[in-house]
Amino acid sequence: MEFEDELMLSAEDDARCVEYIKAYLPQELKERFDEEKLYYFLDVIYEYYANSGILDQDADADGCIDIDMEALAAHMAEQAKKDNIGDFAAEDLLWIANGEAEYSEQAEE
To answer: Hey, is 66 helix, strand or coil?
Structure first.
């Protein structure tokens, strides 16, 4: 597969993931997180996975890696503040992190 094709598939998958997260969020959070913010947080999640070493862990018997979702949400809040995106509660961002994880799990099936 060519690089451009891979980029297109990645962009399409990101769009499906953002739509999934939008549907996953409770109503009171849907108004706080527009598509632009959801794409931003998706990038933060992917960067966290790539740079934290979490993907280097050995998988369990079911092929799963244990991810501390609270730590991920705290990182998302810290990064958003650092990038001047906004001041978000980690508890709210946990919904986005869990939505991304559920989407990824379903996509693997």
So the answer is: coil
Instruction: Please give the span between the terminal C-alpha atoms of the chain, in angstroms, as a whole number.
Output: 22
**What is the pTM for the complete model shown?**
0.85
pLDDT per residue over 41-52, tens digit each? 999 999 998 888
Q: Which of 67, 64, 62, 32 is nearest to 46 (CA)?
A: 67
> Is residue 45 a contact partner of residue 67, using CB atoms and an 8 Å limit?
no
Least confident of 1-5, 30-34, 37-41, 105-109: 1-5
For residue 52, what are the CA distances in angstroms to 13, 14, 44, 46, 48? 22, 21, 11, 10, 5
Those residues whose C-beta lies under 8 Å from the C-beta of residue 65, and which sit 6 or more positions away, are 54, 55, 57, 59
